[in-house]
Amino acid sequence: MRIGVLKGNGIGPEISAATICVIEATGIQPGWDFIPIADEAVKLYGHSLPPQVIQRIKDVKFCIKAPLLAEKLHGRITCTQADGSVVTYPSINNAIRRELNLFVNPRPIRGYVGSSGHHEKMDMVIMREITEDTYIGWEKTLEDGAAAEAIKRVTRSASWKVSQYAFDYARKHGRKKVSCLHKANVLHETDGLFLRTFQEVARLYPDIVADDMMIDAACYSVVRDPCRFDIVVTLNQYGDIFSDLAAGLAGSLGLAPGVNIGDSASTFEAAHGAAPDIAGTGVANPIALILSGAELLAHAGYARQAEAIQEAVTRVVEAGKIWTPDLRGCSTTQQVTDAISMEVRSILGHS
Question: Fewer Cβ neighbours under 10 Å: the N or C end of the chain?
């Protein structure tokens, strides 16, 4: 098996190395394909996301993607298409998803004894639609800079695809309920279309409970009673925000993995950013990307190894002895990596 690696920037190289170590601790020895991205790609190709990089990701099919910096107030990226046309994206992260035709970002978030307080029983998967909404980046300045506007685009086809994926996932993994989060009481046409499409899809899955909730009410509810949610499906921006909130309830964004699913390629990334303020200090929490690596193995057919990594993480986190500073500990990235790797070998019976 070949696995692509986008090392990213900020803490990306450190937590990528940690993820590789843990995957190799399972006994799997993939062919690692280190694919240049951002500054590395600029040096080689003169562009942070050239067609050669997109093609290499498509060729490996599964790719670990470490965090990439998304700058405030700027960071747009323009990509040339095969027909010579040009498309502009709001960030390099958005560009990767859309150039690869990735359509849903599942973020599985669960609680842990010790780190999650009274949210320790939380166990949800947030299905975030990632092709449209306000994150398409269609903005413009008006009135000589005195005003600005952005377009919120929602289509029936994208709403159907992400809703169908959520229900299929629920059925496959024995989940009981899918909840649609929206603001259709105000955004009648856009969020309304998303909700109406979700309800159409839900009728095709009578074995799965379906309900919906306004996004603001859902934020309140998840803090009060996270067990109220099982599978969540929502629009791009809401999913981005809601999953960070849920990660905070778990104890840290450093515990929140993520996947970006496409029809022909997928990337596996942590829900958090590049954290340049702690890059190189050796204290970044690698667990989110390690769990994303476990998701990769599960998608690639290595269920036993994926489950071993997830169980190893649970043991290390719930033991409460080897925590990085984001979890109120003082351990290093390497110490967490070594502890998880040791547990993986123990679970799988490797010496």
Answer: C
